[in-house]
Write a structure and sequence with these properties.
Blueprint: H1 3-7, H2 16-40, H3 46-73, H4 81-108, H5 115-136, H6 141-176, H7 180-214
């Protein structure tokens, strides 16, 4: 019999919810640090900002590994093991993209970050708030289905806005940036930030899958 059948009659392990919330906290910290990096970063402090963001990325990896270990050790889980695994992995991927952007910013040392970078990181922060709202209510999914669905819909709208920001950034970059090396630097950094927003929508899709199965 499947996990869903057993879950109706057996107490569920609640330990996964704090671990998932911990990954959300890492995403929030990394995105807030990235905003500071974009706004205040320079050659003198770039290494410090990158180190702080890298530290958050490592915390996320530790929490993800803890979830995978618990999945192997737990008989009854609140949702399908695959769904918990996918959710943890996708949320950790958001932090990975933020870290990749920070690493490229540190290594490439562009002359100046465009306003679009601040806007994109702002959208990442908006998205992490919606993910936090959804994850905080997963343990009462049946009571919160409508609200969680709304959070996921907001993630989709944020991703659409990020697409627009990225498209306009590319147009302006190719029209105005005459230094080919600077063009490549900025394009690669912005690509990582845009992927971070894309991935937050992926988190929403996984949560919607959980809603369909369990709410």
């Amino acid at each position: 019999m499947n996990n869903l059948f057993f879950s109706r009659f057996t107490p569920k392990e609640p330990k996964f919810f704090p671990l998932l919330k911990g990954i959300v906290d890492v995403m929030k910290s990394a995105s807030e640090l990235m905003l500071e990096f974009v706004e205040k970063g320079n050659h003198a402090n770039a290494a410090d900002y990158y180190k702080m963001i890298k530290d958050e990325e490592r915390k996320g990896d530790t929490l993800s590994n803890k979830i995978f270990d618990e999945l192997n050790a737990t008989f009854i889980t609140p949702f399908d093991r695959e769904d918990i695994h996918n959710l943890a992995t996708k949320m950790d991927d958001v932090t990975d993209y933020i870290n990749s952007a920070a690493k490229k910013y540190f290594l490439y040392n562009p002359n100046e970050m465009p306003a679009a970078a601040r806007e994109m990181v702002g959208l990442i922060i908006e998205a992490t708030v919606q993910i936090e709202n959804a994850v905080n209510e997963l343990d009462v999914l049946k009571k919160s289905r409508k609200r969680i669905s709304e959070y996921c819909q907001k993630l989709h709208l944020i991703e659409n806005r990020a697409d627009d920001v990225y498209d306009h950034f590319l147009i302006e970059l190719f029209e105005n940036q005459k230094d080919g090396i600077e063009l490549i630097k900025l394009k690669e950094i912005m690509f990582e930030l845009e992927k971070a927003v894309d991935t937050t929508e992926g988190v929403g899709k996984i949560i919607k899958t959980i809603i369909v199965k369990y709410a």
